[in-house]
Amino acid sequence: MPTHWPPIRSGLILLATLCGSAACSDARPPDTSPEMKARVDALAKKAVKDLRRVEGGSFWLGDFGLVMTDEEKAKNIPPGPDAKMRPDQLPFTDNSDNKPPRWVTLDTFYLSAYKVTYADFDVYVAAKGLPAHPPKGDAIWQSSWRRMRTADDVPAGVRWSQAKGYCHWLGELTGLKFDLPTEAQWEFAASNRTNLRMSPYPTASGMLDQGKALPTYEQRKALVRRGWTYPVGLFPASPLGFHDLLNGLEWTGDWYSTDAYATGPATDPRGPATGTQKVLRGKSASDGWLDFRHLMRYSEVPDDAVYAGEPSVYGEHGTRCSVQQPDLQPSTKTR
């Protein structure tokens, strides 16, 4: 799988993708005004400021409950690289595609503390002259998508190509290797770089404390309304500094396959070279109170999925960008 697209300097690649499902009559010339330049510069600085360093290391990618002993579970000891599959142990999730777990090693990378919001994405759309987002139009799927934008500071629901294009644009602005994270990187960050039985959720405490880690039922009714996600940064970050890991889905760069863990490399795995669906991680905790939701894998057609004859609404499909390098020294400056 390509790990880096050619720079989207004119927005034409992304525009061609979007025109397959949304009218492009609202596309406009890029905004090059001084006011927009100031907004772009502010967003680029914010994107770098919000990055959190994830020191490289090794861990069990996938459902590590199957390689833990009773003592390790009771004492909250992470299993080591020599752990073996244990038929007497129950898994932590009911997924089949995150088993068997695999010991992998990752290089140091950076990941944004926050998901990309609609306010962030607005700057990108205007600066590149892209169609309005959520898409305009009278179709049910278009109006439904617009209703899901309940506030400017909720995670932007985007197609995969939009997520990829936004992160690469940040790379153009900063000279850093911005991209979508791999799913292994996402899981490593959400797991705080280790495998612990007594941290079943990617929250500040490792638990689902209502009102402290995610909205209470009453808060959710007020915050979410007609959408699926709530404003970013309302609750404390995970121990590594990441917010909202259970506030909707997040795109990764990897193609999805059921056997990716079994067949992928043991160092910086990046999924298969081709596929039909992209991997999503995260998911809203309100969809169920299952433990270890951050170990669960999801997938979706990256662009223009169709259900019952209508284009899909990617309202819950958000993103946070990574930087694929061990430091924050720009390699080039493209602005």
Care to give the gist of this entry?
The chain is of the alpha+beta class.
General description of the model:
- With 335 residues, this protein is an alpha+beta fold.
- It has a single domain (12-323), classed as paralog of FGE (formylglycine-generating enzyme) (Alpha-Beta Complex).
- Helices cover 25% and strands 13% of the residues.
- The chain contains nine helices and twelve strands.
- The chain has helices spanning 12-18, 34-49, 70-75, 118-128, 140-148, 160-174, 183-190, 217-224, 260-263; strands at residues 51-54, 57-61, 102-106, 109-112, 178-179, 249-255, 278-282, 298-300, 306-307, 310-311, 317-318, 322-323.
- The protein has a four-stranded antiparallel beta sheet with strand order 1-4-12-5. It has a four-stranded mixed beta sheet with strand order 8-7-6-11. A two-stranded antiparallel ribbon has the order 2-3.
- The two termini are 28 Å apart.
- The model is unreliable at 1-24 (pLDDT under 50).
* Rg calculated over all Cα atoms: 20 Å
Shape descriptor reads: globular
Please tell me the overall pLDDT. Answer: 90
Q: Report helical residue fraction.
A: 25-40%
* The named CATH superfamily: paralog of FGE (formylglycine-generating enzyme)
Give me the number of helical elements.
9
Largest sheet: 4 strands, antiparallel
Question: For the largest beta sheet, what order do the strands appear in spatially?
Answer: 1-4-12-5
The low-pLDDT segments are: 1-24
From the N-terminal CA to the C-terminal CA, the straight-line distance is 28 Å
